[in-house]
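Query form — protein Thioredoxin

QUESTION: What is the three-dimensional structure of this chain?
INPUT:
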Amino acid sequence: MATTTLTAETIGQTISENEIVLVDFWAEWCGPCKRFGPVFEASSDTHPDVVHAKVDTEAEQQLAAELQIFSIPTLMAFRDGILVFNQAGALPGPALEQVVQAVKDLDMDEVRAKIAAASDGQA
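ANSWER: The structure tokens for Thioredoxin are given below.
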């Protein structure tokens, strides 16, 4: 499965309409981004059930600022519309595979309970 390009207009709908979405924040001038690109593409072929999306931080500067992307590449993973992973730096293939498996294996009821407990504690 090929990767999808996201923009400020499409990111919200993509995250809300798909169970698992991985987002690679990158830029053309970024060396580590270029090295991570093929790893990310290979993962999209291995996991057709996971949306692999890319955000060009040069074209989408406002979106990158809103999501507090301070270094690239940055990988974010969303499951059921919830941000469950956020890490800067290029990952090697085996590490990306671990992230994908960990996101797939999450108990989302437990994740939602933890979010609810954290927000109750802050109220």
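ADDITIONAL NOTE: The longest strand covers residues 20-26.
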